[in-house]
Fold this protein.
Amino acid sequence: MRLIKSGLIGFTFGLFLFCVSGCASSPEDERLFVVNVNGKVISYTQYRDALKRLLPSDRSYSAEELTELKKDLINELVEEELILQEAKRLKVFATEAEIGAEMEGIEKDYGDEPFKEAITERYGSIGKWKAEIERKLIIKKTIDNMASKVKIPEAAAKKYYEEHIKDYEKPEQVHAKMIVVSSYESARKIRAKVTRANFAKVAKDESLSPENKSGGDLGLFGRGEMPREFEEVVFKLKPGEISPVIKTEYGYHIFLVEQKIKGEKQKFGSARNKIVEKLKSDEADKVFTQWITNLKKNAKIDIKEELL
């Protein structure tokens, strides 16, 4: 269910575009079927071309890997067909406007003639590609309709917030600049002349660190993001204050603190929407898994293992 399930939380264009083929096939191939789902067959041609699209041509696979990939593909084809059958029962469909908008959006990313040539080569014709776009949209809408019914109680969101409170605690941060040189004598002379106003220029001219190009700017960081020797100094300084010369294994340093931001805890109100979104996505995955499992359990599925 790997690929199908991803449709619940972020459907992508390529996900369901592998089942219609523009590749040549013999009448015999068309008559053969690898899967029959409640009377609807998936032909050997469809399976073969889906497999070609699934497997990159620039790498080889072991027999075990190939077997596993084939099983996954058959599972996905079965799930897609079950979703389409449910969509028909539920009267879910894609309008011409929706199909056209999807086609136009995809074409904009590719240009004109090269895109049409690629589609014709891949799907046989623009008409077949349009049919697959329609198919893809119906699957997406069916999954989205299910996900939209998932509701998260306020109490559940608050409970998640309380149980994951550390995720919503913003640590203290410092915006600092640094000058580093190789000798104490050089550092002492620089410290004697450096001020907040000329710190960036002095860093550009004399600092040995990669940050010298940006005036020694280390950016904004919290505890645990810089070497301990740096943090022990900068978190004790006040905004605008310059440190004495500090020796570390990297050299002799001088720090300037530009800004300090106090740590704070994000309140539930501001975190609520993201929490609800996460819980809804998680619950939608569970609902989908149970739904597709029940469909499979009650379906008549015939797989021709010898053709895989």
User: Anything to note?
Assistant: The beta strands are 33-37, 40-43, 169-170, 173-181, 217-222, 246-248, 251-261, 264-265, 301-303. Confidence is low (pLDDT under 50) at residues 5-27.
